[in-house]
Amino acid sequence: MESHKRTLAILHIIYGGLTLSVAIIANTIFRSVLPFIAAEMNSEEVMFFSTFGHVIQSVVIFLLLLIPLPSVIGGIALLNGKKWGLTLILISGSLSLLSFPIGMALGAYTIWVFVKSGQEKALNDQNQG
């Protein structure tokens, strides 16, 4: 089971890193295109767009960071033997189920490893007791 946990941790670090890089690239593209869009608008549209555009951008960036940061942190913690890393990865893996197809596969594998780990722990506790 330890090999599955190690594999899961590495997969979460890779998935989180790739998702973070996509968020950075999307933010860079948005900030590059924004001045060209604003140049084609009148003053009222620019005011509306600048106000709500930054709010929308902040929300999108926050949502893009919601999954990968816990994934990377949990993966590093799990590789270092921290028990709370598996719980953090479970939360991140459950959120990644919304991302089809790679996130869904990673989320399903995460849940499988978590369930198997719990069954293994229950068997060990039962045999000791």
Report on this model:
With 129 residues, this protein is mainly alpha-helical. It has five helices and no strands. The chain has helices spanning 2-39, 43-66, 68-79, 84-96, 102-128. Helix 1 runs antiparallel to helix 5 (102-128) and helix 3 (68-79) packs antiparallel against helix 4 (84-96). The longest helix has 38 residues, at 2-39. The chain is elongated and about 75 Å long. The chain starts with a helix and ends with a helix. The model has no long low-confidence stretch (mean pLDDT 87).
Structure characteristics:
single chain, 129 residues, mainly alpha
Uncertain segments: none
- The string of secondary-structure elements, in order, is HHHHH
Query: Approximately how much beta-strand content do the residues carry?
Result: under 5%
Distance between the termini: 22 Å
Helix content: over 70%
**Number of DSSP-assigned strands:** 0
Please summarize the sheet with the most strands.
none
| Rg over alpha carbons | 20 Å
Number of helices: 5
Mean pLDDT rating: 87
> What global shape is seen?
elongated
Helix-strand makeup class:
mainly alpha
